[in-house]
Amino acid sequence: MNWFLNRSTRAKIVFSFGLIFSLLVIITGIALYDIWTIKGSQRDVVYKDFRQTFDLMQIRSNLNRARAQILELMLTKDRAKQRALEQDIKALATENDRSIKELTKHYRDEPQNLAKLEELASTLLAYRKSRDEQIVLIYRDKVDEARQMGIGVQEERYNKIKDIALEIEKQEMEHARERVGQSERNANMTLVIFLVIGCGAFLFCVAMTRALTSGIAAPLRLFTEVAERVAAGDLEVTIPAINRTDEVGGLAQSFRRMVSKYIEMAGLTKRIAAGDLTVTVVPQSEKDVMGNALATMVVGLRGITGGIKEGVNVLASASNEIIASTAQVASSAAETASAVNETTATVEEVKQTTQLASQKAQQVSASAQKSLQVSKQGKKSVEDAILGMSRIREQMETIAESIVSLSEQGQAIGEIITTVNDLAEQSNLLAVNASIEAAKAGEHGKGFAVVALEVKSLAEQSKQATAQVRTILNDIQKATNAAVMATEQGSKAVEAGERQSGEAGEAIRVLADSVMESAHASTQISASSQQQSVGMDQVALAMENIKDASNLSVTGTRQVELSAQNLHELGQKLKQMVEQFKL
Amino acid sequence: MAAGQKETIAGQPKGIDWTGLHQRLAAARTRISRDLSADEVKGILRARARALARLPVAEAAQGALEVLEVLEFRLTYETYAIELCWVHETCPLTDLTPLPGTPAFVAGIINLRGRIVSVIDIRRFFDLPIKGLTDLNKVIVLQGEEMEFGILADEIIGTRSIPVANVQPTLPTLTGIREEYLQGITADRTVLLDGKRLLGDRGLIVNEEG
Q1: pTM score, two decimals?
Q2: Nearest CB to B159 within list A432, A461, A486
Q3: Separation of alpha carbons A151 and A435, rounded Å
Q4: Same structural domain for residues B26 and B127?
Q5: Is B191 within the bounds of a domain?
């Protein structure tokens, strides 16, 4: 057993499987041999025994068939058919001959059977001869004679043949049966051998399995357990002392070394954990990951601890500063919050005013549109007014012309009046002269004096009338002048009106333009108010955010303060902790 | 003509009453174009006559006084009169040709139906202050035995019979005319000129030799 165990695992396995394989080969060889034997036996049976039997049976059958055909030949009258039948019979006979030849060849070594066969052959020959005679007879239509022959001699010969054949057949059957029996016995024996070998192999396998299990699997399981425990961290494992020279032994040694190494490392680590940073870790090689790491770790720890010691001091001072500045931040955050509140309120106000401005701007825009309409109407009215004024001016001119003609006619009247007045004057003088003459005439002239007075009175009346007419003419003239002046003034007024209408139209146009501008401006104001409102919303939102952020910052500041306190305490704790470590 | 003018009542322009205007114009037109009927003419003339009517005969018959037939004329807002017996005729002043080398009171000469008559401006003759603008377009031709000249007048009022009793002797301070040429003055300040003296005045004769 020890020898087995000390072999390498490969050898063990090879050995085990080789053994099993050889057993398998043996069994296969035996099986093959047996199969080959049985095959041979079978072939013998078939080709030797059965073949003969078959041949003999074939001969018999052919003979039967020939007999039937002879009978048919006897019965039929059709020559063609007879000939066909004859041919058939001849073919059968040829076949039988062949078969006999074969059998003869086969039975060369068996004199007994050979004799029988020869007897059979001779009998067959005689039979055939008689058959031929039969056929001839049949061809000659001597059917009855043929039949007689058939019943008599042929029947005898036929039976003899049959018997011999049957005999040989029986013999052959016996042979065959013998052989089959032999084969059977061989097979049984082989089975037994198989069984034995199988059992042996089974037992061997069991033994092998147990050996391998105990030799390989069990130690492996053990080592697996150990490895699990080591992996779990429990280094207090005992490695079984397996001093084998195979892989398991090697594994055991390696495990032992590994565990010892781990224990060593653990020891170092414990020391480090205990605070002794003066340990020096010597890695076994540059492939010693843990050793290298541990060494680096120790160095690093030393450095870190030193750094931490320095850092703790800095931390203490920094945490103080943080606390101070957080206090400031908290106060300024409070200020920021109040300022944000104010700003939010202001933003609300601005938003209100913006909305108002937007509304107003929209109103202004609407009223500007209306004003534009109105100004268009006004322009049209102004143009109409100008048109009316020009018409008035034309009328004025017409009036002035007619007044002027009137005045000219007044002048003509005046001239006429002057003439009439002259006439009246002269009439007056005439009357005076007449009265003078009448006075000079004395008494006789008194009648004439009356006439002269009448004439004078007429002249006076004329003068008065002309004076009236002149007065009226003067009035007419004055009125005409006044009318002309009025017309002139009216014309000037109309011109002024035209000009003013033009100016008004211009002013309306300018107004319309400015209204349009103001409409545009108001639209823009409205739009910008919208934007302003949106912006204000955003500002309000931002203010909210700022407020939230400020609140957050306040809470954060408090948290920072707390954290600073914690940091301070932490610093103290760190200091205490670090003092544990000896550098 | 106040028709057709707009009236402003407390600043409200009143519209022109065109229809009334047209009616009035149509009425006037018809009035102008149609002829006055005979009765209307008579009526008008009678009215005028009544206005001018005087009863010179009745005046004379009132007191059977002595009357003077005088010709009244106006000159520079003063009413003068001269007896008819010295007056030849009156005529309008036409074509007055001034004569150079004549005294100032000689206005010039006129051609009266073929006769050359000299015209005197009695204002200058009497050294009356020439004030105011006057017509001075009438000439009263005075004729005496030897003299004949005309005097300028603004207007011939007419012949009148003045009762002698109404004529008063003048005061020298009343008029500027020398009293020898004045015959008197009436109650209604009509200055009665002495025609005889005027016509016989040597000062009026203008001679080259003298």
Answers
A1: 0.39
A2: A432
A3: 233
A4: no
A5: yes
